[in-house]
Amino acid sequence: MAATAETSHIELSGITVEVTERGRGRPLLLLHPGHPAGRIDAGARIMDLLAEKMRVIAPTHPGFGMNPAPPKLTTIDDLAYLYLDLMETMALRDCIVVGLSLGGWIAADMAVKTTERLSHLVLVNAVGIKTGNREARDIADIYAITDKQLAELVYADPQAMSRNVKALPESELTLMARAREATGRYAWTPYMHDPKLKGRLHRIRIPSLVLWGEADRIVSPDYGRSFAAAIPDARFGTIPGAGHFPHLEQPGALARRIVDFVEGNAP
Amino acid sequence: MRVFQFTEQPYPDAWNDHNGSLRVNLPNRKLDPVRAAELFHRYYDEWQLADGLGLDIMLNEHHSTATCMSAACVIGLSVLSRITKRARLLVLGYPIANRPDPLRAAEELATIDVISRGRLEMGFVRGVPQEVAIANLNPVFQSDRFWEAHDFIMKALTSHDEPFNWESENYHYRQVNIWPRPYQQPHPPVWSTTGSTYTAKKLGGYGYVMATLGTGYDTRRLYNAYRQGYAEKRGGAAAPADRFAYLGLVAVGHTEQEARRRGELIASYPRTSSIVFAPFRNPPGYLSIEDNVRILKGEGKPRSFTKDGRVVEMATGSVQDLIDAGVMFCGTPDQVYNQIADFVEHCGGMGNLLMMAHAGPMSHEDTVENLTIFAKEVYPRLKEMRQPDAAAAAAQ
User: Nearest-CA neighbor of A137 among A220, A36, A236?
Assistant: First the structure.
């Protein structure tokens, strides 16, 4: 795969958004997750695979990457409007929006506002809604556990995904620290959800797919089923061998499911 | 120099059975309410003694912790404002950014100032990181919220003619008009704490009393930043010594041996205060990105230094280490006086000693002795001690 990546900085009402683009064809807006995964690198495997079929547009949420978050950008609601503005500025039409975890929350929040420029919605291990009762912890408190405990909840195979963090270059550690802080910025309280969002999901009337890494212990597949059930035209499916971040553990399976869905080949 | 007697009002009975965390997630089953009542009454008795001995009083608050049972500082302030006669009542501090309702804080503080007939010293703090998990307000915006809550409380305390309006991202009020208004005019003195030169300079600009804790022989750096901020806003004027405060652990005895025994008891405070499940010490946005990178690399950041630059770990240092670092003042009255005088010299002036003369399992008898010897044999000399020349300190 030789598709070259282009990174540009797009100005939207005084906010600078870093956007990476790869591939040609139908536009696919890929919204990255929060801590501990963070932004999706231009050379990531999931980018390779999706860019073979489509024009992948992957913005970095301000605060992640090295782009600062302006003071007025404080909520997922703000990011949803930011990316609706982005789609307008880039004149995207019939766009597939794929959101991973925190990015799935943004994607769902965009779609309840308007699906004017959207053709398909794909939510992958998305957070953003409250499904259980007030004493149920639907989403694991990632800030109340150690990094090791977090890895055990996040990955189907924590061993295979483990890295020697101390040996990483300073630039990489800075990105990790920034992702952790930016996730808190947007999702600290109400924790990882908007109490209003679930009641608005009925407004999403485009073909939607909710995918779930089967081994996710951050937020369970049952949560994903509830998410899908609240969206009128949504299907639900699981991805074996993946936890909370299928784009890292099973990028091939994830890309295939997305492409099949969009091309109408999904079971 | 003024001296304020401080205890964290601990529940030390749970300190030996905590499974690695004395804060946030230590089940409250480990607290016997009958024992807690005994301790609270005893701590109030000791503050009454301090009042009688001519000392001032400081208290604070922490949440969900066996290190400090004072979860709402206004409760202690309320009790003390009625049962003490003359002591200044310093709260250091009120973690205003961790409370959703600064109007309530303004009302509480004004009322305490009135009941105590103008004895309140009003300290606002950002609070330690492990408080964030309990408050659950976004730590990323904590600093902004702190300064906005500060602005709001100051306006509420000093507005007397008509209700005012306050609508921002953080706070929404339409009829702010507190009753009663504060006894001290225009408002009780304001204090704060910091460990950063950036904030120290800002506090200097305001001219508030600035306190530091555990900074030992690195304190001068912070004081100098304050001095710079103070001078810049006041045509070069030098910050007087009464603008500076330092929290020191104090153990006095008639003999050095007795003092050292008390020092070991007081050292239980630095030895336990950092015992908390690690993730709660690092909520997002509380520490800088640079500090977080350091943590990812597995590196620490020393805070306490001796006079000759040796790093002392507060949590593990011996009593001698703590003395060398200026964290503890311990010995006979002569020795304690000399240690404090030496430290004040290092600071270029320091007018308020926040004295932790009780900690952890120290008994009532030991606390009474410690307070009494200090008040009778050390404090009179500290009151007479000449502070270093403020202008000379500011010029350095």
Answer: A220
Token pair 């309410």 is found at: B33
Query: Could you state, in order of their start, the residue ranges of all structural domains in chain B?
Result: 2-395
pTM for the model stands at 0.96
Interface-testing mutation among A181, A183, A186, A191, with chain B (most B C-beta atoms within 10 A)? A181
Q: Do B133 and A176 touch (CB under 8 A)?
A: no
What average pLDDT does the segment A25-32 reach?
98
Domain chopping of chain A, boundaries: 6-262
Chain B nearest-CA distance from A180, in A, is 6
A172 near B CB under 8 A: no
Residue A83 has a pLDDT of 98
Task: Report the top-level CATH class of B2-395.
Answer: alpha beta
Phi, psi of B328 (to 5 degrees): -125, 140
Interface contact flag, A188 B139, Cβ < 8 Å:
yes
Class of the CATH-defined domain A6-262 = alpha beta
A1: confidence class by pLDDT, cuts 50, 70, 90: very low
Q: What gap in Å lies between CA B21 and CA A143, rounded to an integer?
A: 16
Within chain B, which residues score under 70 in pLDDT? none
Does B280 reach chain A within 8 Å, measured CB to CB?
yes
**Position A91 pLDDT exceeds 70:** yes
Residue type, A137: R
* Chain B CB contacts of A188 below 8 Å: 136-140, 284
